[in-house]
Amino acid sequence: MSSPPRRITQAEVARIAGVSQAMVSLVLNGSDSLRVSPKTRNRIEEALRSTGYTVDIMGRRLRGKSNRILGVFSYESVFPSGVADFYRPFLLGIEEEAEAQGFDLMLFISGGRVDGRRRVYEKGENRLGIADGCILLGRHTDREELARLLDERFPFVFIGRRESSAGRVSYVGADYTTATRELYECAWAAGHFRIGLLSVSGENEATIDRRAGYLAAARVHRRQANMITEDDPRVVLAQVRARRLTALLVDSFAMAEAVRSSASAEGIRVPEDLSIAVLGDSDPTQSNAFSSEVPSEVDWTMFRIPRHEMGTRAVRMLTQLLGGVTPAEGTQLLLPCAIAEGTTVVAPPT
Amino acid sequence: MSSPPRRITQAEVARIAGVSQAMVSLVLNGSDSLRVSPKTRNRIEEALRSTGYTVDIMGRRLRGKSNRILGVFSYESVFPSGVADFYRPFLLGIEEEAEAQGFDLMLFISGGRVDGRRRVYEKGENRLGIADGCILLGRHTDREELARLLDERFPFVFIGRRESSAGRVSYVGADYTTATRELYECAWAAGHFRIGLLSVSGENEATIDRRAGYLAAARVHRRQANMITEDDPRVVLAQVRARRLTALLVDSFAMAEAVRSSASAEGIRVPEDLSIAVLGDSDPTQSNAFSSEVPSEVDWTMFRIPRHEMGTRAVRMLTQLLGGVTPAEGTQLLLPCAIAEGTTVVAPPT
DNA sequence: CTGAAAGCGCTTACAG
DNA sequence: CTGAAAGCGCTTACAG
Description:
With 350 residues, the first copy, chain A, is α/β, with parallel strands linked by helices. In chain A, helix 1 packs across helix 2 and helix 5 (88-100) packs parallel to helix 12 (307-322). Chain A has helices at 10-17, 21-28, 38-51, 57-64, 88-100, 143-152, 176-189, 205-220, 233-242, 253-265, 289-292, 307-322, and strands spanning 55-56, 69-74, 104-107, 113-114, 117-118, 121-122, 125-126, 133-137, 156-159, 171-174, 195-199, 227-229, 247-250, 275-282, 301-305, 332-335, 338-340. Chain A contains 12 helices and 17 strands. Chains A and B meet through strand 1, helix 4, helix 5, strand 3 and strand 7 of A and helix 4, helix 5, strand 2, strand 6 and helix 6 of B. Strand 3 of chain A pairs antiparallel with strand 2 (104-108) of chain B. The structure holds a DNA duplex (16 and 16 nucleotides).
C-alpha cells in the first residue's frame, strides 16, 4: 500500500525552478510584478505548470489570520423536512450575501442534541470559534448560552430580536410591534371595536413584541385589551363569544387555520362573522417559502416577515463587525413587515 | 471605530496560565491525559474557560489533523430559490448523516462564479482542503476540475454517477438504467410496441444511463430505438406522429408537462392517445421536496430518485474513506429507484 | 531583482 | 511532568 503522494508545495516548485520559495510566492501573488525578472518568472511559471501546483489555502489563510468563514448555528435542523420549512428564506439570504462577500459557510450540526435541540456549548466548549463569526437562528433560544456567548465576545448576529441581561445582543429582527399595530388599525378601519389578540407561542421576544403592538393600538383607541392564550381552537371560539369579539389577531398561521375550521364547524363564518388577521408570514415574492408552507385556500390578511432580507442584512452586519466597522444603522435592526391586505378582515356583522 | 475582535491563541492562554503554549495544546488534545499534572491542568482549563478559547482550524489542519468537517460543494446555489428545489432532499440526507456521525458541514460558496457556476479552483487555488473531505453535487460538472481533484487525491464523493479519464471517481448515484428499463417494460406490458425516448438534458451520465436502459429494453423486445432530442414540445409531437409512437419516456418532469399541455392543445389526449412516463423524480415520502416542485394535477407514471438516501449514503461513504476504510459496497454505488405506477401509461389506442 | 528569515496557530517528537 | 523547538505552507518585510 503506497502512501498518498504528497501535495506539491511552493518549496518543491522552487527547487525545480532553481529559485527560493519566496520567489514562487512572489510570482503567484504578482501584485508587485515588476520586481521579478522575466527570465526567472518564466522558469517559475513553467515549473508551476508542470507540477500542477495549487495554493494550499491553509497556509495562506493562517498567514492572513481571517478564515473567511461564517458560521451558521440553528437550534433546529438547518435543512428542515417539515412542511413549514421556516428557515429556508433566511438561509437563502445568508447564502446569497455570504457568497457575495466571499465567505464560506460553516454549518454547526455536530454537537449532538439535548432534548432534541442543538447546543452551542458542548462539554463546556464553544465550537463556533472555528468560524470568524456566526449567524444564530432558531425559534428556541437558550438564555444561558446567549449570555455566555456575549461574555466571550465572540462575534455573532442573531436573526430575530433577542435580549440578554448579559449585554447587548446584535440582531436583525422583524418589526412585529409596528406590524401588529398596523393590523389592529386595519381591523379598526373596517369598523371593529372588539379586537382580540390570540398568542400561542411562549414568552419569547416575538410574542412580547406582538403584544406590545396590540396594547399600543388598543391604548390609542381607548379600548380594553382582550388577550387570549389558548391552544384549543374551540376554547378560543368560546372566549371570542364570551368577550363578544368581532376580530382576532392570531400570531400563528397554523392557529389561524385551526380557528377558522373550528369556526366553520360551529357555523361561524370567517370573515363574515369573525375577521381574522395573521401576525406574520413569509414574503412569497422574495422566495418560494410560502408555497411550501401549509397550503391554504384562504387569502389571509396578514403581515409578511422579510426573511430573505433578514438573512442578507444579518450577514452584512456580521461582516462589518468582523471588519471592525460599527454598522451605520447600529447592531440592533428591526426590518419593517409589509401588510398583505387579504380577504379575512371585513366589516363586522351589524 | 472598534478594532476587529482578535481571536485568542494558545499562546495567550498559556501566558495567563503561566505555562508553555505546548502544555495548552496537550490539555486540549488530552489523549495522553496522564502526562499533565492535575494542578497544571486545572490552571490551564480555567484559563481556557475564562478566555473562551477555541482552536483555529487552519493551524490545526496545517499541522495535519482532522477537524471533523465535511465539505459540501455544489456548482449551483445550495439553498435554491427556484421552484424545483432540486437539492433539498440531498442536503437533508447529508445533514442528517453528518450530524449522526458528529461532523460539521462546510458549505463552499465563496469562490465566485464563472458563467453563473461555482468553481472548485479559483485562480489555481483549491479551497476544499479546509474540510477533511467533500461531498460534491450539481447537475453541471466541470470535467477538468474533476480530473484535477482526482490528481490531488483529495477525498471526495460525488452525488450522481461521474466518470473521469483521470481516475476512479467515488460516487453514490441512482440506477437510472434499470429504472428506465423498468418503465419501458411497464409501457410494453400495457400493450405498447412503439415506445420513444425523449432526452432534453445534455451529454451527461444521467442521460447516458437512461439511454442505455432504453436501448437495452428495446433490444430485448427486438424493437427499433426511437430517440428524440428536442426542446420544442410541438416538434416533439410532430416526431411522435411521424414515427407513430404510442408511448414516450421523458427524462424531465417539466418536459413531460410541456408535451402534455401541447398535446392537449392539439387534441391529443394523455394518456388515451399517448402514454407518457417520466424518468425520475423525488420521493415525496422521504421529504417534502415534491410538494415544492412544479405542482401538477397529473399523477405521473415515473420512477423516484432516492435523493435523501443518496445524501446519507454519500456521507457514509466519505467518512469511511476518511477513516481509511474501504466501504464493503465499494466506492461506486448506484441506488435503486422505485417505480411509481401513476395514471399516464395505459393501453394504446386500438 | 533575489534570498534568507520571521511568523501566522497549531501538534508532536525531543530533551530536560 | 514540563519547556523549548521544529515544522506544516504560506506571505511579507528586510537585507543584500
